[in-house]
Design goal:
This protein is mostly helical.
């Protein structure tokens, strides 16, 4: 482990006077990558929405013409 207390009294040899300035090429590259990502996301969502087809679903329930007769109902009813 280092002893930071012994280094506490040292000052910087060169004072920091320069402020932060944005790096213009990095900002432009970031904007282009961000715009590309947004466009790709929008294209993906558009293609996903176009794949959904609104098709009428077939009815799964069929109407029975003959009524059901339960044998156990007659047995329980006659008891």
């Amino acid at each position: 482990m280092q002893d930071f207390i012994s280094h506490k009294d040292q000052t910087h040899s060169k004072p920091v006077t320069e402020g932060w300035t944005p790096d213009i090429p990095s900002l432009l590259i970031g904007l282009m990558v961000g715009a590309l990502g947004v466009l790709m996301g929008m294209e993906y969502l558009d293609s996903r929405n176009s794949q959904i087809e609104f098709v009428e679903t077939p009815t799964l329930v069929e109407k029975a013409e003959v009524s059901f007769e339960f044998e156990f109902y007659d047995i329980l009813k006659n008891r």
